[in-house]
Write a structure and sequence with these properties.
This protein is an alpha+beta fold and about 240 residues long. It has three helices and 14 strands. Strands 1, 2, 3, 4, 5, 6, 7, 8, 9, 10, 11, 12, 13 and 14 form a 14-stranded mixed β-sheet that branches. It is globular and about 45 Å long.
Length: about 240
């Protein structure tokens, strides 16, 4: 009896130790402020990010079943209460079947940015397929999402992809594409008074392709789940907006 209890306690201890090890790997990313006066366009944002911000990589494979690893990196900064983000992707298969805002873009060649502004478990999932179609919702988990109004998304978020904006079926080869994104804090509609400067939040960055020939699930910060699941804010890293 006591031997069994001892084994149970030992097992629980090992599980907690594993979880602690995962969380001890949480990355911390300081998001640089780029000061810029006046209106700024996507081309300028791209150039400024290239000039002032170092590359970060989305390169972790957390699930052995999905071993394909495209080359994925990004730069992130903030300016005038807006997030500037640029992705760089090299992959074998590209797919852009979704053209409607808030459609299932994760089925396509997709990059994602999940952000919990207040670190309280309520997060925004910004998802972009490779032609810049946006999917954006808010809530505490996968089953409790509230879509941000498509008109608000289209009016506020700016996206430019090197692959253009027209949908296409899967193409196979060696592809390189880039995407520049401007996300004004205004689009964080459930946090209307939020100021990015000085904000300490949590986030993760992802690459996926659910319906591509080589399904893949890469993350920036480790995700300790049995199966691919990006909707897990407990595995977000830290974002510190300078």
């Amino acid at each position: 009896m006591w031997k069994r209890i001892h084994l149970v306690i030992l097992f629980i201890g090992l599980m907690l130790a594993c979880k602690s090890e995962i969380h001890s790997q949480d990355k911390v990313l300081k998001v640089k402020e780029i000061k810029y006066n006046g209106q700024v366009g996507l081309e300028q944002v791209s150039q400024l990010l290239e000039k002032h911000v170092e590359l970060e990589h989305v390169d972790l494979i957390n699930w052995d079943k999905f071993s394909y690893r495209p080359d994925v990196a990004f730069r992130i900064a903030h300016s005038n209460n807006a997030i500037w983000l640029k992705y760089y992707v090299k992959e074998k298969n590209i797919l852009a079947s979704v053209g409607d805002t808030n459609g299932p873009v994760a089925r396509d060649s997709c990059v994602e940015f999940f952000m919990d502004p207040l670190g309280n478990g309520n997060y925004y999932n910004f998802e972009f397929n490779c032609i810049g179609t946006v999917h954006l919702a808010y809530g505490p988990g996968r089953g409790q999402r509230q879509f941000v109004d498509p008109n608000t998304i289209r009016n506020l978020i700016e996206v430019q992809s090197s692959l253009g904006a027209q949908t296409f079926t899967e193409r196979t080869g060696d592809f390189t594409w880039e995407m520049t994104i401007i996300i004004p804090a205004e689009v964080l509609t459930h946090n209307p008074e939020i100021k990015l400067k000085g904000l300490q939040s949590t986030a993760n960055f992802y690459k996926c392709g659910d319906a591509t020939s080589q399904r893949h699930y890469l993350t920036w910060n480790p995700v300790g789940t049995e199966k691919p699941d990006y909707h897990r804010p407990e595995f977000f890293g830290k974002l510190i907006f300078q």
